[in-house]
Recover the amino acids of this structure.
């Protein structure tokens, strides 16, 4: 026995005992520039956190948790003929930090509880500075207006100059990201769709992100500072939310530039624009309507209904179109319950206004349902929307035209209206007259109501229907269900599938994207699998998807794997942007685990696909 045991000890591998828990922290840099996103990684070896701590809100910084990823490593040692195998499990928790303004910051310690034991990460400082000027990549912010009123849209133009050099190209591995945030933050910004350039001046397009919103810019060759540049102009609008002197900007842009052609290196570039001063005044109190809600600009409204002749209580579909200058607030339709005539003459829908899923530029479309409360209602009253007109400097009210309608009382039908009992003579009847039934057809109903007859003598002279033997067999419910059930169910299933595909082609695209993502996952291309499916969900090209895009899209589907799936893309981005030439790394999750997560995401996406329109794959 001892000899056999010794031989087995030499041949069979031995698994080492569990090792101690170790927590390590790594950060990409402690001296970032404004607009440069850095990654804070906390790696827990031989354990996982019971609860994941979150970074607190820090003024001047945007902090975001990017999720976790797990990796396993095995090592084998052979000492004196004995083989010992050691397995190490590591879980990495990633946080993204983006500075918005220069200064000194302190990132606090994070407390990780692993197997009931507390592990505190060290705190560390951040020294944030403004990006250095780069003559090859410049941002210029311009405006013709230096004063405004609270709520006024101030148009500005952001011009991005990119040097015209074949050896310096914007990398497609990362979408250029623009961020506009002033020191005080008392204003909001929005990018508008640029007008197309003349055909002979355009020189290609590029997609960028402005405050997280995807915008397509068109390049134009120009001469700037006595050099040849591509100029990409982005119209933006600034809306001041409080009075005072505001510093608008700077706008920062972060991008990856490939220098040196095909065999060149990628360089991370962060640039900043100039700042502008804007003096903002309060709105005047004179002439302000009581129901004024803060709108500034110029607005018009139109209303229409689906029918003009109704009965009391019939549903009336009311559509409201509000026209104005972009960017327009999403919830701009006035509350009907605050309108006295609507509150008295109509029963309003408890859901209120519903905004259309897609609106034309400069138009917001809302729909709701109203019901006339009585027959005295003669019109749908005017809807009012007060606003402050910049051109005239006065408060004005946009109104819809009243819509005449005809309302009739609703008919109340009772059993007495349908049936009346009377004693009438019956032939060969006994001395006591038998009750008989006289029917009255209702003129207000499409199908006349019939009465239930309970007197057996009234049915004596009726002739029962006689069916042939074969047909009488089908009259039995059991036989009919056995014979007709399978073909009916099959036809219903086929009709349901065809109807769902015709009504919602997005489900078909999701099924195809799921099959493609599963194939990529089996081949080990985990990040490509996640990007492929999220691209179908959002309509964003795969090469433009970032880890943040994936996290937001997956989280919107109420999927529990948003952090893990987005971290797979984040790891791939980190590997691509690292200086090391080898981008191959051990996958964070196994292929079968990834396919299970994609199955869960696909199931959630299909649940929500019934309310969406299809997007291009």
């Amino acid at each position: 026995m001892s000899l056999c045991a010794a031989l087995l000890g030499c041949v069979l591998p031995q698994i080492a005992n569990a090792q101690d828990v170790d927590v390590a922290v790594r950060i990409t840099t402690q001296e970032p520039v404004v607009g440069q996103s850095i990654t804070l990684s906390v790696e827990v070896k031989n354990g996982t956190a019971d609860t994941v701590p979150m970074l607190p809100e820090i003024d001047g910084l945007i902090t975001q948790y990017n999720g976790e990823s797990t990796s396993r490593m095995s090592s084998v040692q052979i000492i004196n003929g004995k083989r010992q195998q050691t397995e190490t499990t590591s879980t990495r928790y990633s946080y993204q930090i983006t500075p918005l303004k220069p200064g000194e910051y302190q990132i606090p310690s994070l407390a990780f509880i692993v197997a009931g034991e507390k592990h505190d990460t060290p705190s560390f400082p951040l020294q944030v500075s403004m990006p250095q000027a780069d003559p090859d990549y410049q941002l210029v912010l311009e405006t013709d207006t230096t004063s405004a009123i609270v709520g006024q849209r101030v148009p500005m133009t952001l011009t991005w100059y990119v040097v015209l050099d074949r050896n310096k190209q914007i990398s497609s591995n990362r979408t250029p990201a623009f961020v506009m945030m002033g020191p005080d933050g008392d204003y909001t910004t929005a990018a508008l769709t640029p007008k197309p350039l003349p055909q002979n001046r355009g020189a290609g397009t590029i997609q960028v992100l402005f405050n997280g919103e995807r915008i397509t810019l068109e390049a134009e060759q120009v001469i700037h500072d006595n050099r040849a540049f591509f100029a990409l102009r982005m119209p933006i609008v600034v809306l001041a939310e409080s009075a005072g002197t505001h510093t608008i900007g700077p706008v920062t842009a972060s991008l990856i530039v490939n220098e040196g052609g095909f065999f060149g290196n990628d360089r991370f570039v962060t640039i900043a624009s100039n700042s502008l001063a804007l003096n903002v005044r309060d709105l005047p109190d004179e002439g302000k309507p009581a129901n004024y809600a803060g709108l500034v600009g110029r607005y018009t409204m139109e209303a229409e209904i689906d029918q003009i002749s109704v009965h009391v209580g019939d549903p009336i579909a009311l559509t409201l179109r509000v026209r104005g200058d972009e960017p327009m607030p999403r919830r701009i339709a006035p509350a009907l319950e605050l309108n006295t005539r609507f509150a008295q003459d109509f029963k309003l829908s408890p859901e209120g206004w519903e905004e259309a899923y897609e609106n034309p530029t400069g138009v917001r479309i809302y729909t709701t349902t109203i019901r006339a409360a009585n027959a005295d209602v003669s019109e749908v009253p005017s809807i009012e929307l007060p606003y402050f007109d910049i051109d005239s400097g006065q408060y004005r009210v946009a109104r819809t035209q009243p819509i005449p309608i005809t309302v009739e009382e609703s008919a109340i039908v009772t059993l007495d209206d349908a049936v009346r009992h009377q004693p009438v003579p019956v032939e060969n009847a006994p001395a006591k007259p038998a009750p008989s039934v006289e029917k009255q057809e209702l003129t207000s109903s499409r199908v006349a109501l019939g009465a239930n007859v309970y007197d057996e003598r009234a049915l004596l002279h009726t002739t029962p229907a006689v069916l042939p033997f074969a047909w009488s067999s089908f009259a039995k419910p059991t036989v009919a269900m056995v014979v007709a059930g399978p073909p009916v169910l099959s036809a219903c299933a086929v009709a349901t599938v065809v109807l769902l595909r015709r009504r919602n082609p997005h489900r078909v695209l999701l099924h195809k994207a799921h099959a493609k993502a599963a194939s990529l996952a089996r081949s080990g291309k985990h990040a490509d699998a996640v990007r492929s499916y999220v691209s179908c969900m959002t309509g964003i090209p795969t090469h433009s998807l970032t880890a943040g895009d994936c996290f937001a899209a997956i989280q919107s589907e109420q999927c529990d794997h948003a952090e893990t799936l987005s971290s797979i893309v984040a790891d791939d981005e980190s590997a691509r942007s690292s200086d090391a030439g080898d981008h191959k790394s051990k996958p964070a999750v196994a292929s079968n685990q990834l396919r299970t997560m994609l199955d869960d995401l696909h199931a959630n996406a299909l649940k929500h696909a019934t309310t969406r329109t299809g997007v291009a794959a």
Summary: The two ends are 66 Å apart (CA to CA). The chain has ten helices and 35 strands.
